[in-house]
Amino acid sequence: MKIKLLLLLCIASLGLASCKKDTYIQDTPNRTIILTIQPNQWVIANEGRTITTDLEIPEIDQFNVDVEGILVYLDHPVNENGYIALPYTYSGNTFSFEHFNGGIAIDIQRSEFSTQNPGRPIVPIRVKVVLIPSVDVT
After folding, report:
1. Count of alpha carbons within 13 Å of 87, Cβ hemisphere only?
2. Alpha-carbon span 119 to 2, nearest angstrom
3. What is the mean pLDDT of residues 112-121?
């Protein structure tokens, strides 16, 4: 009985020892670009209903636009140590972005917009852009 139990344990040990763990390493890591938008970079557009800025980011090419993922984050308006992901709505403002070959455009749309107080940001705003590699499988 002991011999059969020992033989069974040896076979089980050999079976477990022969298992191989495969580790997949992504060839191209995500790329992160951090920029700062100065208050004077914002432009009033869309008959005063939108504030917009274009940011040149040469790392964004047509392949990024067509196939890969692009995420955009802005400084959090309340938590100075955090970011918010776009699109986002906060205090009647809707923040969104558009990406294109060579950069991104960030828009702030307000539900109540005054030309006397267009609501341009008065402080610099950090922007974090994350480029996520991907493979087109279609």
Report:
1. 10
2. 83
3. 60
| CA–CA gap between residue 62 and residue 46 (Å, rounded) | 27
Per-residue pLDDT tens digits for 53-96: 999 999 999 999 999 999 999 988 778 888 999 999 877 788 99
> What is the distance between the alpha carbons of residues 112 and 138, in angstroms, rounded to a whole number?
43
- Residue 44 belongs to what H/E stretch? strand 43-45
Give the span between the Cα atoms of 67 and 60, in whole angstroms. Answer: 11
Whole-number percent of the chain with pLDDT over 90? 49
User: The pTM is what?
Assistant: 0.73
Q: Would you give the DSSP letter of residue 111?
A: S
Given a cut of 90, is residue 118 above it in pLDDT?
no
Q: Alpha-carbon distance 123 to 106, whole Å?
A: 16
- Judging by DSSP bridges, how do beta strands 93-100 and 103-110 pair with one another? antiparallel
Are 98 and 109 in contact by the 8 Å Cβ rule? The answer is: no
Structure tokens at 96: 């969104």
